[in-house]
Every structure is written in structure tokens, then in C-alpha cells.
Amino acid sequence: MTKIGLSGGIDAGGTTFKCGVALANGEIIAKQRVDVTTPVETVAQCLTFFRQYDLSSFGIASFGPIDVDRTSPHYGRILKTPKPNWSHFSLKAAFEAGLNLNVVVDSDVNGALLAEVTFGAARGISSAAYITVGTGIGAGIMSSGEILGRPYHPEFGHIAVKKHDVDRGFPGVCPFHGDCLEGLTSVRALKKRWGDPIDWDANHQGWNVAANYLAQACASLVLTLRLERIIIGGGLMLAKNMLPKIQTEFESQLNGYLGNSIATADNLICTPFYGDDAGLHGAIDLGKQAV
Ligand code: ZN
Questions:
Q1: Tell me: the pLDDT tens digits for 56-67?
Q2: How many angstroms is it from 270 CA to the middle of ligand 1?
């Protein structure tokens, strides 16, 4: 099948690359998931899918750490990562060679944030963040219309948080800091102490503990940058009870400190408009920037 004027993109996660092709109006007309193995094998599978279409732009919203500095000689290259075979691999070069197109690359969370600001849950808002809570934790942050952290993206997942009482004996799973936000609240961390959250019942204490940490993360963002919207996505947020728990915790932790000068928690903190596809929409939007 060949169509003119289509845009392609990849939400390149650490375990799955979500590939998609969209019409000019943003509607995604084809999707394919590719399991991440070696760079060569993964890229080849993606290219087989994309070569069915006549693409006019291409963007990648990638797992990190990755060089997102568009003036850097290594722009689009994965940095040193514990992920076998992927350190120093250039996603940008691989897809430019394979598709004969200029490829725009940014971090996965910046991509998702861009999609949500353009047409999603933060439309019309100039100070917002997108936090993802999955195997790891990361955040894309926009303040007064500017995405923060160029050339280096924020590493918000590694901020310190105040430990919950039930976690006193848990050292956390971050290889660098132990009990940072990611070390305590990522799905990897939650699995380590209580098994997979997919198997937890609604009253499992893990929900409250995770909500406590994520509310602390939201409070740090709001107190530092006075954001108007925080979008929280990623695997953990697919549990329907998480969002209201985080909102309640957030209000309790701030304790009225900012008074009426911030939106209420249920207006401030939300889940992505694009759901699981926020990163894919962001990748496609990134690609269009180059055209
Ligand atoms: Zn850490």
C-alpha cells in the first residue's frame, strides 16, 4: 500500500518500539509493535513495516539516555546504557539511511509532552509536564512554552523523595541511588517488593505507597516551576484507581500552601488524552517539525 503525504513515527520504548503512520490530520492509520532485541534486528523489522508507505516525514521519541541536542555531532545517538548492544547506537542515522528521510529525534517523554500540548490534555497550556511511570520514571517539562533541558533532558526520575513508613526496610532498586523516586516507585521497584501490580487487588497497600511518592513528585514540580498541568502516563497509570489517589495525596501534602493560586488537584493532575499512544503521536509530530 502506498499513500502520499504520510507521516511516520516510533515511540521507541526500552522493550517495545511502537511504529505508526498518520495522515496529515494526525489520524493514525497503521500501527505495528516491534519487540526490542538487538539494534540491527529491531531497526530492520521497523523498516519492513515503514517501507510499505510513502512517508514525507519521520520522528522518533526514544527511551534514554539519548543525545537530543540538535547541534551535537552525536544527535540522535543512544548514550551509555545498561541495555546490551544499544550504547552509542544512532537511531537517527539508522532510520535516515533506511528511509532516505530527515529524522527528528527527542526523548520519549518530550515527544509525549509535545503531543499532549499540541492537541491533548495540556492544549493551550504553556507550563506543563509529562511523567511516565513504567519500568523506569522520566519526565518531559515545558515552562512558559519552552521544553526544558536542552541539550540534556531532565533526569526527574532520580530525585529524592521522603520515604513512606512501610518502606523503611526497602533499599530501593536504582543502581545509582537506591531509594530515589524511580528506585521506589517504578514498576520494577513495586514488583520487587510486592509482585506485579497487575495482580494486586484494589486494597493493596502498594497503590497508596506509589500514590504518595508520585504526589511528592508532582509537588516538587509545582513548587519549583508552578506548572499548570501534570500529565502522568505509563504502565502503572493504566490502573484506574491511581489518578484519584495521587490527587488526594497531593492536596494533603501541599496542605493548602499555594491557596487558590493553583488549579485544584483534579484540574492540575491528569492522565494522557492520547492514553497509551501519546508517545507515538509525539514522535509523528516531531517528524513534521523537520518538513
Ligand atoms: Zn536513581
A1: 999 999 988 889
A2: 24
Cα 232 to middle of ligand 1, angstroms:
19
Spacing, Cα 30 to ligand 1 middle (Å): 36
**Dihedral sign of CA atoms 168, 172, 176, 181 in order:** negative
Distance 99 CA to ligand 1 centre (A): 36
CA of 180 to the centre of ligand 1 (A): 5
Nearest to 242 by CA among 198, 286, 273, 183: 198
Quickly state the pLDDT bin for 261 (edges 50, 70, 90): low
- Listed in sequence order, the DSSP H helices in the chain are 39-50, 91-99, 108-118, 181-185, 187-194, 205-225, 242-254, 265-268, 278-289
Separation of CA 171 and ligand 1 centre (Å) = 12
Task: Write out the three cell numbers for 234.
Answer: 505509563
pLDDT per residue as tens digits for the range 74-111: 999 999 887 889 999 999 999 999 999 999 999 999 99
pTM: 0.88
